[in-house]
Amino acid sequence: MNGLLALIALVGLVLFAIGRWIISAHARDISIWWCWGIRFVPLADIMFLARYWELGKSGALTSLLGLALVLPAVGKSVWDKKHPAVDPYAALFAKLSGDQKNGMFVEISTTHEARVHLAEKKIQRLNDRMAPWFQAMQARRAALKSDEAVAAFNEEAAAYSALLAVAREEAATLADLRAKTYTGWTQITLEDAQPFLEEMMRNADRD
Question: CB of 170 within 8 A of CB of 126?
């Protein structure tokens, strides 16, 4: 919708510019002063049309048509500013009672703690796997003799590096989870509450 109105407005601006050019061209045929006056003096174009309507009406009507095409986009913009779209989740969240918000807080904080605990266990398992692996690789490195042994070691080192990258991603995820704490429902964001609000909307639709 907005794209269509913008396209129509663009066509309107082009027509308006063409209409102004037509008026200016006719004014130039009469006098260069009329041409400059229309370009730079306020209301000079109206005075020109009042005196030379038959000569300038084609340009005036083209400009008016262009303005008419611009008006819908301008009206839509004014309407959108005076009537901003209401986020349905924000509206629903604002209507929740204190008990509903507290219940949502308990569920969100419990789920968050479980995610933190799960992420910690995952990091611990990765560390338990990688620490002895790294030590074993370090111990074997000095004993590498043949090209085949070096190639096999390099493949293993690449696999270790890939797992290390995964461990770093998991550590970053854990850090983000730990950085977010919940001590009351006032800390719940719409992003946190959205799954619960969606469930409430679905239940309301069923009813």
Answer: yes
How far is 75 from 93, CA to CA, in rounded Å? 31
Q: Enter the DSSP assignment of 87.
A: P
Taking alpha carbons only, the member of 119, 102, 129, 207 closest to residue 169 is 119
Cβ partners under 8 Å of residue 126, min gap 6: 163, 166, 167, 170
Tell me which residue has tokens 């913008």. 6
Helices (H) and strands (E) counted in the chain, each on its own, are: 8, 0
**Tens of pLDDT along 24-82?**
888 888 888 877 777 777 787 788 788 888 878 888 888 888 888 888 888 888 877 87
Beta carbons within 8 Å of 169's beta carbon, 6+ residues apart: none
Longest CA–CA span in the chain (Å) reads 103
